[in-house]
């Protein structure tokens, strides 16, 4: 078979898959949404879960055993038939259909196989970006500036006008840290160039070129698994064990009581306690000769337990950073792109000005970080890697943003989130002592269980009934649905969740 024949064969196969999925989309029948008088956002998706085997089923189990001969499979749950996944539903290798409320660890923005994303793959002007991947830092494509302006900067956090693309969330955080350190040292030098001694000593990790400066982070934080991001991650031992890490300050993150409107005084006292500790740590590390160059914080501590704080806390952090000439990094890798009812979660906090740096990834289809102009490196190759992101992701993000705007998905997530949170609150009233602390912003929600064993059993039982959810913290269940998640999906979930809780409560 000639090379041309092989290319045509693959092209025809791709076209067949696209035509089938697009046909399903436009031909689809009204789902349960019609009964609720909801506008159908994703035509053709299943009307609910369908489970025909245990999950994982026999084919997934066989594939897991085969994969184990090649690599560790400790995190593998089951295998997926991505050719058939549609909307909010995941199809596994055994023919089970699951309502996906964790969406590839919070990375699927507008559902599986959305026709607009499939169409973006077919546009002739996008094909070169998929085939010819550039070393972006050296040889960017001629349309790259326009892509950055029209796509990434069009949805930038208010007040931030610079952006740097990256591969993933961890490297976005890690390079944000480097931007902070370079900014901090430039100010220490008074804008002068580094000395010859600094240039030589940094090569062997020695002073003065390798300075003693640090980033302050928080207990239960998660910022990524690369070594720099791991230095400010403190959620679970599985992330950290056996890896050498710097001794940097770790502050307490507020432990709030829910519902928030019933514990205003107690929560304010808790946040004041944490802010006072942040101030003390700044002074302690200054006296140690290892000053804090920046604070890294998540708007919601996702992996650490979906831990929330109020706007008062984040405003206080920004004030303390300013007082100490330190940067404020707000990590929006999991919280960005609309799921909280605003495009960026920190927009809920009414900060006095924009954060200094905002890393992003996951639903944004690409990694990267936004930053204030003062944090731009003054030399080439200081923040750099081979690919520096992926231009092929930009047409996909552009399609996502267009759908978000056309379907008003941010407002939808705020409304559906309120409906979802009410459903969780009703269930915790029905099963007191088993579940508690329902909380969330938009559809980014979570609930706690009385024990880790009951939480894990509920996750397993939900999966057997066709619902995929996530876990976090010590005994929390978290939900990360798509932006196309609607009230009728909430009803499907709460009915199934009620059955699972009833079984646990016997």
Automatic annotation (TrEMBL):
Its cofactor is pyridoxal 5'-phosphate. PROSITE patterns: AA_TRANSFER_CLASS_3 (PS00600). Its EC number is 2.6.1.19, 2.6.1.22. It is an enzyme of class 2 (transferase). Signal peptide: none annotated. One of its GO terms (molecular function) is (S)-3-amino-2-methylpropionate transaminase activity. GO terms for biological process: gamma-aminobutyric acid catabolic process. Keywords: Aminotransferase, Pyridoxal phosphate, Transferase. One of its GO terms (cellular component) is mitochondrion. Belongs to the class-III pyridoxal-phosphate-dependent aminotransferase family. This is (S)-3-amino-2-methylpropionate transaminase. It comes from Patella caerulea.
């Amino acid at each position: 078979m000639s090379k041309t024949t092989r290319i045509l064969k693959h092209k025809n196969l791709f076209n067949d898959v696209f035509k089938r999925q697009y046909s399903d989309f436009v031909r689809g029948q009204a789902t349960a949404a019609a009964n609720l008088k909801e506008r159908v956002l994703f035509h053709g998706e299943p009307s609910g879960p369908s489970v025909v085997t245990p999950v994982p089923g026999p084919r997934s189990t066989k594939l897991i055993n085969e994969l184990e001969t090649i690599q560790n499979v400790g995190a593998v749950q089951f295998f997926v038939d991505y050719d058939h996944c549609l909307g909010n539903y995941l199809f596994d290798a055994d023919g089970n259909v699951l309502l996906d409320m964790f969406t590839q660890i919070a990375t699927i923005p507008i559902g599986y196989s959305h026709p607009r994303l499939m169409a973006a793959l077919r546009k002739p002007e996008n094909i070169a970006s998929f085939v010819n991947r550039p070393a972006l830092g050296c040889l960017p494509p001629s349309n790259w500036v326009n892509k950055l302006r029209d796509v990434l900067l069009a949805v930038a956090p208010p007040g931030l006008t610079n952006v740097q693309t990256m591969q993933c969330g961890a490297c976005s955080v890690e390079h944000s840290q480097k931007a902070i350190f370079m900014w901090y040292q430039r100010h220490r030098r008074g804008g002068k160039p580094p000395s010859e001694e600094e240039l030589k000593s940094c090569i062997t990790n020695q002073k003065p070129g390798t300075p003693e400066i640090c980033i302050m982070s928080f207990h239960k934080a998660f910022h990524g698994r690369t070594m720099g991001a791991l230095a400010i991650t403190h959620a679970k031992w599985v992330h950290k064990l056996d890896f050498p890490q710097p001794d940097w300050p770790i502050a307490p993150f507020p432990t709030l009581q829910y519902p928030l409107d019933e514990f205003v005084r107690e929560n304010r006292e808790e946040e004041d306690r944490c802010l006072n500790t942040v101030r003390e740590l700044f002074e302690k590390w200054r006296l140690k000769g290892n000053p804090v160059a920046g604070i890294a914080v998540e708007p919601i501590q996702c992996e650490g337990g979906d831990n929330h704080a109020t706007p008062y806390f984040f405003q206080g952090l920004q004030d303390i950073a300013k007082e100490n000439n330190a940067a404020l990094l707000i990590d929006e890798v999991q919280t960005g792109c609309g799921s909280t009812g605003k495009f960026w979660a920190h927009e809920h906090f009414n900060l006095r000005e924009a954060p200094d740096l905002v890393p992003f990834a996951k639903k944004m289809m690409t990694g990267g970080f936004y930053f204030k102009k003062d944090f731009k490196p003054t030399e080439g190759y200081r923040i750099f890697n081979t690919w520096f992101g992926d231009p092929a992701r930009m047409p996909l993000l552009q399609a996502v943003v267009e759908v978000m705007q056309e379907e008003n998905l941010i407002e939808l997530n705020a409304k559906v989130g309120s409906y979802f949170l009410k459903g969780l609150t009703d269930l915790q009233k029905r099963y007191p002592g088993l579940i508690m602390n329902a909380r969330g912003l938009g559809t980014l929600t979570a609930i706690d269980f009385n024990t880790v064993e009951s939480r894990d059993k509920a996750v397993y039982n939900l999966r057997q009934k066709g619902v995929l959810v996530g876990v976090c913290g010590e005994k929390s269940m978290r939900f990360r649905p798509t932006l196309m998640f609607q009230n009728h999906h909430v009803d499907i979930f709460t009915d199934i969740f009620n059955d699972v809780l009833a079984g646990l409560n016997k």
